[in-house]
Design goal:
The protein is 24% helix and 26% strand. It is an alpha/beta fold. Bound molecules: fe (iii) ion. The site of fe (iii) ion has 4 residues, from loops.
């Protein structure tokens, strides 16, 4: 069962995470879904696959009215990111989906009409959620060729999609990374294989190093906070990526 936790609250400005579910069978990769709320307006980051939609929907419903979700941010095109789109559109046909322009002709195969999609240019863009400014940050080739992360400068939270992901054993259920050295062992193979470009990695590390980030929130695994954010960026900067392991 998935459960929804508040990870940031500043008045009516909140971040919720529908955390991974260690009881899931391991043939389906486990995911985190993040909901940004500003008053009555919600934006859902990487809502997940159609397979887990009922659990995500009920976990969110336990905290807030899911019809508050007006916008979706899709970091990229993968099935575990956005194949639930048609189901979310059944809840709210006026829902809008921000995604890289590169995928705007492909994702409609999961559902949506021409006016569902709000393309994100390669350089990123600002997204206003009832006056709260969020920033789509370029993260191309990490791992998808059209890929963005979402930064909330007010909450100092970076939703980092697959960057920072760790495939944790079922007995490691914590919301946050506590022991960085033991955690990062579960992230290494994933990043070496899925992150295909060292040049893109270098650009991303340089970009995010200059940002103020209290929490780095990946789509798989646990959340990095405090000094573990910089530790992760340093670790990633030094990793040999784009390689096949034996
Ligand atoms: Fe992916």
């Amino acid at each position: 069962m998935k459960t929804c936790h508040v990870i940031h609250q500043d008045g009516k400005h909140r971040w919720l995470v529908v955390a991974r579910d260690p009881s899931r069978p391991d043939y389906v990769i486990d995911t985190n879904e993040y909901l940004v709320l500003n008053g009555d307006a919600g934006l859902l980051c990487d809502p997940g696959g159609s397979e887990i939609f009922p659990e995500v929907f009920s976990a969110i419903s336990a905290q807030v009215d899911p019809t508050c979700i007006r916008e979706i941010f899709a970091s990229h095109q993968d099935p575990d990111i956005i194949s639930s789109l048609a189901l979310w559109l059944q809840c709210n046909p006026a829902l809008r989906c921000h995604v890289s322009w590169l995928w705007c002709g492909f994702i409609p195969h999961f559902g949506g009409a021409a006016d569902t999609f709000l393309p994100i240019p390669d350089a990123g863009k600002q997204i206003s959620l009832e006056g709260l400014t969020l920033e789509a940050i370029p993260a191309h080739y990490l791992h998808s060729s059209g890929n963005h992360h979402l930064y909330d400068p007010k909450a100092r939270i970076l939703f980092s999609g697959d960057v920072g992901a760790a495939l944790l054993p079922p007995d490691e259920t914590g919301l946050y990374v506590e022991d960085f050295d033991s955690h990062i062992r579960h992230a290494e193979k994933f990043h070496r294989r899925w992150m295909g470009s060292a040049r893109a990695r270098d650009q991303w590390c340089e970009r995010v190093s200059s940002m103020e980030i209290d929490m780095l929130c990946p789509q798989h695994g646990a959340i990095y906070r405090g000094r573990n954010v910089a530790r992760f960026i340093d670790w990633f900067a030094a990793l040999d990526v784009g390689v096949l392991d034996d």
